[in-house]
Amino acid sequence: MYAFTLERPSTTADAAKLAAAGAKVLAGGQTLLASMKLRLSDPGRLVDLSNVKELAGIRREGNAFVIGAMTRHADVAASAELKSALPALAGLAAHIGDRQVRAMGTLGGSVANNDPAADYPAAVLGLGATVVTTQRKISADDFFTGMFSTALNDGELITAISFPIPKRAAYKKFVQPASRFALVGVFVAQTDSGVRVAVTGAGSGVFRHKGLEDALGKSFTAQAAAAVKIDAADLNADIHASAAYRANLISVQTQRAVTQALG
After folding, report:
1. Segments of the chain assigned to CATH 3.30.465.10
2. Do the strands 64-68 and 158-164 form a parallel or antiparallel pair, or are they unpaired?
3. What is the SS3 assignment for 8-28?
4. Quick count: other Cβ atoms within 10 Å of Cβ 137?
5. What is the CATH architecture assignment of 168-261?
6. What is 5-164's CATH topology?
């Protein structure tokens, strides 16, 4: 690991100033610290957000849950309110990584990193959430721009994410056993404005599947999902799974998610 300076601000404003000055933000550290240990990253100056208490917490605002960026996966998974009103999100958090990852990883860190096989981006996009930052509010459809890429500007920090409560929703993933990331994960949500289907692990980043959304909008059933042909042309192929295998998993996991959402 290369030498670095560690800053530990106690307010969002101070953290934002340090980030704007070029410091690298440390949220949960589940990706950054690993890359630093391998000397793949040399940030020079780190801003540890763990002391910024205003960035953590879960609260309900009308028909949405606002979750602070520094809220740990374990806290999302354990929230009684989320388990009652938005169990798909609590359940997703409960199966991120292992217990150690859930104890340290944060919502904001995961979403800002935008790993193409991460779970939280599927929930953000699938629920049509709003990402709140130190500068603005960004809709989920505008936030994710590519592999490890988002609409965040340099120095812009996620402060919270607002998740609308859907009529029903579910998340199902086929786990890559070594990493616990999603080989393919599908988040399905039935909302007042229609059905949203977000897929992670299968492409260069999280994406919505229009064919599945259209079919489920007409008939929210596993049979309707099964009838949709999944094109493998732009899907990932690697040592873990071929593009065709991932295409099949998208269909299967969607059917399972719909079945679970229907209870």
Report:
1. 5-164
2. antiparallel
3. CCCCHHHHHHHHHCCCEEECC
4. 10
5. 2-Layer Sandwich (3.30)
6. 3.30.465
What is the rounded end-to-end Cα distance, in angstroms, of the chain?
48
Give CA separation, 154 vs 16, 29, 37, 42, 68, in Å: 10, 18, 24, 17, 20
Do residues 249 and 220 touch, judged by C-beta distance below 8 A?
no
Q: How far apart are CA 199 and CA 96, in angstroms?
A: 16
Q: What is the chain's Cα-based Rg?
A: 18
Q: What is the pTM for the complete model shown?
A: 0.95
Which stretches within the chain are classed as H helix?
Answer: 12-20, 32-37, 73-78, 80-85, 87-94, 99-104, 107-113, 120-126, 140-143, 210-218, 222-226, 243-261
Q: Cα separation of 246 and 236, whole Å?
A: 7
pLDDT digits (tens, 9 = 90+) for 146-186: 999 999 999 999 999 999 999 999 999 999 998 889 999 99
Q: Which two tokens stand for residue 129?
A: 């959430």
Which of 93-99's residues contact partners 24+ apart within 8 Å by CB, and which partners? 93/119, 93/120, 95/119, 95/173, 95/175, 95/180, 96/120, 96/180, 97/30, 97/73, 97/180, 98/180, 99/74
List where CATH 3.30.390.50 sits in the chain.
Answer: 168-261
* Tokens, residue 101: 């990852």
Report the residue count for the chain.
Answer: 263
Query: What pLDDT digit, counting tens, does each position of 237-260 carry?
Result: 999 999 999 999 999 999 999 999
